[in-house]
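Tutorial, part two.
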Amino acid sequence: MSQGRKATLAGQRFENVIRSILTNNSVSYIPQYTLCKNIYGHPHRVDFFITNQPKFPKGLVIQAKWQDSGGSVDEKFPFEVMNVRERYPCPAIFIVEGGGQKEGSLSWLRKQVDGKLIAVMDIKEFMSASNRGLFTQEIPFSTQAMLP
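Running the prediction step on this input gives:
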């Protein structure tokens, strides 16, 4: 099996874990949703578009980024952040896992958290935030808890 195919399968498995957390929390979502045109003017697909959540009336994007060995996912972080800030009509969360990112890239990404990119989490942080009410009005969600 090619390295590209292995990476695609690993990414799909990671998305399945996120899908399970969303489903177990009764969160409505659209997978692989074309949200907008990206900064280059091309259709931009997101991993999960969260709908029907009062806390996020315009929706919420969840982008899953898996890399367990050397590769290029971390090189795409600036592109993704620019799209969030300049093109997304709603806030976004990045869930990054695998440990194969280049040194400094995840720290850089976490420093980009602002009003549009509301959190950068690993899967444990995402599950914990989901269990504590990330998608509900009752329990406020603090992005500060997700910063280094």
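The chain has one domain: 3-146. In part three we will examine how such features are distributed along the chain.
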